[in-house]
Design a protein that fits this description.
Structural class: mainly alpha
Oligomer: single chain
Number of helices: 2
Distance between the termini: 25 Å
Helix content: over 70%
Length: 101
């Protein structure tokens, strides 16, 4: 379980970094779009960049939600395993330390 927790923490860090990067790209692209749209014939390409940055940000937010759900499911699994383990130990004590099915 510790390895899973470490992997989830790493994934969360990556998702958060991706979200920050998407936000930065979106902000920078919007600023560039405002500054050059009147000077460049192909300013529509900047608009496409802004659109893609927004899509990236939405994707990162979706992944953040999926990560949150994964964390909840791992916590439920951990609790279930702990409960089963505790139940098995109690059953063995009642039977006089004999292994029971």
């Amino acid at each position: 379980m510790a390895g899973i927790d470490t992997n989830i923490d790493d994934l969360q860090s990556g998702v958060e970094a991706c979200t920050r990067a998407a936000h930065t790209i979106q902000s920078d692209a919007a600023a560039v779009d405002r500054q050059v749209s009147t000077r460049i014939e192909r300013a529509d390409l900047i608009g496409v960049l802004v659109k893609r940055a927004k899509e990236l940000q939405a994707c990162a937010l979706d992944q953040s939600g999926a990560l949150r759900e994964l964390r909840q499911n791992v916590a439920l699994l951990r609790a279930e395993l702990k409960l089963k383990s505790s139940s098995t130990v109690q059953r063995r004590r009642r039977v006089g330390n004999r292994i029971t099915p």
